[in-house]
Amino acid sequence: MLSRDPATLDKDESAFLTHLFAIEPKLSEVAALGHRFAEMIRNGQDDNLDPWLADAAFSDLGSFAVGIGRDLDAVRASMTHPWSTSPVEGQINRLKVIKRQMYGRAHYPLLKQRVLAAA
After folding, report:
1. What is the pTM of this model?
2. All structural domains of the chain with their residue ranges
């Protein structure tokens, strides 16, 4: 529920979050920061990234912000460029699943045959 758009929550979910935020105010701050970051990703806008990093640095998302800061150029590129490695990641995942299924059962020729048969 914390990662969803607040406008899509039903009445019970909104009431639950309101109660949760009343119990733990820090969670409200973290949720707001998370929503801001998600909006930047969805809209492909990196111009608000520096203020977001400054706000997140002293919150419970501080280690996440430090990690983003370590590879800031790549994060900016992922937000502004239309390219994605998702298709490649899917193929890598498929190959790893096949490899794990066959671990210790066969050698390279059978693995090669299974990979090519699945393609």
Report:
1. 0.66
2. 6-80, 86-118
